[in-house]
Automatic annotation (TrEMBL):
Signal peptide: 1-23
The keyword Signal belongs to this UniProt entry's keyword annotation: yes
Keywords: Cell membrane, Heme, Iron, Membrane, Metal-binding, Repeat, Signal
Known cofactor(s): heme c
Location(s) in or outside the cell: Cell membrane
Residue sites binding heme c 3 per the record: C334, C337, H338
Main location: membrane
Protein name as annotated: Cytochrome c
Pfam families linked to this entry: Cytochrom_C
Keyword Heme (UniProt): yes
């Protein structure tokens, strides 16, 4: 069975990568095992390495993608086998130390923007295959790495070593718990290891550490993250309102494969994940991930269950919108795609009724897409690009109107979310890119600042994620 699975993966990888810049180059691969390189290429897809290590409009794996952090900007590095600017001189041990321990060749700690705490559970065999791919299946690019833009003393790397000892798991190949269904175990490995889903979907603590790295961490694991480049990574737990409680395994497979289902559509950074990586996963691996996510213990339903309320659709159908802020703007600007009933158009325009992103405690995602627009990327399984306009550029649409329509969407069709987004919130998001901060601490602050008792791990400046290629980089 295992040999058959390996053969299937190898065949799928060769087919998926043929003709692309990510395929193994025969001239470079002549001294390495082609099957091992193909396996490594597939693992690179599982790890979504290319999305972060490719700059906007840049060469594949040559680095240069900006990563914003609270202390300054860092840039992804060149991981092609170029001997001067890339990793061409790395031994297998050097490579392993970087990927699973977060230590680069010169012994300096890597910033945890590199998700080595998740990669720590990758197996030795997968690391060897990944190394073979990067050494023999990737074209060298002589591109200089960009220096970090972090002021001293925060630019010193040695404190990161202490951070790693405190919060990063020691490298140890994943071993499933006894009695675990093999399919679920495979899904757990991908989600918690190379897939590093928790890097975005798990909340972080005071020093930016993920609060849990797997299901043993309790309800925090995959409970949803804070704003990342002004997108919210929602919960992947079985919460019926805020998470995937109403999703089936088939829904999850379809979403990861095509970026769209009848009741959802990919957006923000997840667009890169689907476009660069998950659409290339084998069906078996997609099914394994779905089974694992659905097998996680249920978490307390923070907002109960969702029940559709038809009164909003009736009001909009009747045209009797007097006194309902945002309703007229919705009819004029939004209803043509998302419809009066908030149901959207299957696999084109996502529904707003009961959408976990819409009802999130943090309104940043829905406000961001209203202000800046969005692109639903094409995939091999859904070869059409669908775009939403940026209403900040639509003549006559004001900050107040955008705030009103965000509040309207969050409180209609049975959605039960706060409707306190203001015109000043929209103005700040539009002009400075600041996420919409909500009250979070004991003091009830409306600004994301460091509180005395419960420090906010995110807020303005705490994006800590790369810019996305979707809608920006045509080379994708």
């Amino acid at each position: 069975m295992i040999k058959g699975l390996k053969a299937a993966i190898g065949a799928a990888v060769v087919g998926l990568l043929a003709g692309t810049s990510l395929s193994a180059t025969p001239g470079l691969a002549q001294d390495a095992d082609s099957d091992l390189i193909a396996k490594g290429a597939y693992i690179a897809r599982l790890g979504d390495c290319v999305a972060c290590h490719t700059g906007l409009h840049g060469k594949v794996y040559a680095g240069g993608l900006e990563i914003k952090t609270p202390i300054g900007r860092i840039y992804s590095t060149n991981i092609t086998p170029d001997p001067t600017h890339g990793i061409g001189t790395y031994t297998l041990k050097d490579f392993d130390d970087a990927v699973r321990k977060g230590v680069r060749k010169d012994g300096s700690p890597l910033y945890p923007a590199m998700p080595y705490p998740s990669f720590a559970r990758m197996t030795d065999d997968d690391i060897k295959a990944l190394y073979a791919y990067f050494m023999h299946g990737v074209t060298p690019v002589a591109q200089v790495n960009k220096p970090t833009d972090i002021s001293w003393p925060l630019s010193m790397r040695w404190p990161l070593g202490f951070w790693a000892k405190m919060f990063a798991p020691a490298p140890k190949g994943f071993t499933p718990a006894p009695g675990t269904d093999p399919i679920v175990a495979r899904g757990e490995y991908i989600v918690t290891g190379p897939g590093h889903c928790g890097a975005c979907h798990t909340p972080r603590g005071l020093t930016m550490q993920e609060k849990a790295y797997d299901g043993s961490g309790g309800p925090d694991f995959l409970a949803g993250g804070a704003p990342i480049d002004n997108w919210i990574a929602p919960s992947l737990r079985n919460d019926p309102v805020l998470g995937i409680g109403r999703w089936s395994e088939d829904d999850l497979v379809q979403f990861l494969k095509s970026g769209r289902t009848d009741h959802s559509a990919v957006f923000g950074g997840m667009g890169d994940v689907v476009a660069w990586s998950t659409q290339y996963f084998t069906d078996d691996d997609l099914r394994a991930m779905a089974k694992y996510l659905k097998s996680l213990p249920s978490v307390p339903a923070a907002k109960g269950d969702y029940t559709y309320d038809a009164s909003t659709a009736k009001m909009l159908d009747s045209g009797n919108t007097a006194g309902k802020a945002g309703a007229d703007v919705y009819v004029q600007q939004c209803a043509i795609c998302h419809r009066n009933d908030g149901g959207g158009v299957a696999r084109m325009f996502p529904p707003l009724a009961g959408n976990p992103v819409v009802v999130s405690d943090d309104p940043t995602s829905v406000a961001h897409i209203v202000v800046t627009g969005g692109v639903l990327p094409l995939t091999n399984w859904a070869p059409s690009t669908v775009a939403m306009p940026a209403y900040q550029h639509v003549p006559g649409v004001t900050d107040q109107q955008m705030a009103d329509v965000v509040n309207f969407i969050r409180s209609s069709w049975g959605n039960k979310a706060s409707s306190n987004v203001s015109a000043s919130d929209i103005e700040k998001l539009r002009t400075s890119g600041a996420p919409i901060a909500q009250a979070w601490n004991w003091g009830g602050s409306t600004d994301s600042t460091w509180g005395f008792s419960v420090p906010q791990p995110y807020g303005a400046g705490w994006t800590f994620a790369p810019a996305t290629h979707t809608g920006v980089d045509a080379a994708q």
